[in-house]
Task: structure prediction
Amino acid sequence: MQSEDDYKKLLGRLRESLPETITAQSRFKIPEPEVLYEGKTTVFRNFGDIVDAINREAAHLMAFLLREVGTAGNQEGRRAVFKGRVPIKQLEDRITNYVEMFVLCSECQRPDTKLVKDGRTLILECEACGAHRPVRVHRTTHTTEKIGALEVGNVYEVTIQDMGRKGDGIAKYDKYIIYVPGVTKGITTKVRIEKISGTIAFAKQAIE
Result:
């Protein structure tokens, strides 16, 4: 008869033998940005920790953030410095957008991915489920004519750029990711917003 100590040792060996990707999703957690303001600059103190968490090149994330917040800046060691006062909520939203574009698999939602170049096209390949998709970068335009925030009940015209793992269409509108059931990839359609949670929105096709 096995003792309790033998059972614990056996259980420990079993856990060690599990593939890394099985537990990767549960461990994936992005640190919240730690920001302080020094005069007319914004100091992103734990920039390096976020780079480590998402397993991407620091220069790639930095270039994305500079473009998205519309300011100048540079990386200083494991922190990033931006000119002007950048709201922490804006940084949080842009990091979320980056992860959705460049890190998470659109099929299994795991972060076990890598970026590869196919000619001029950037491809996100998932090492967990084998899925791959082209990365379509949504570029924020910094002009006087800005896109307003989504509002529940309003109708917007969007293009379905991808399909979610549950079969819903995925569209992007400024900083928002919109999930639309019953549509196909590539179509442009009008949708009515039914629910908004942060930068995620849920909608249905608008019947005209």
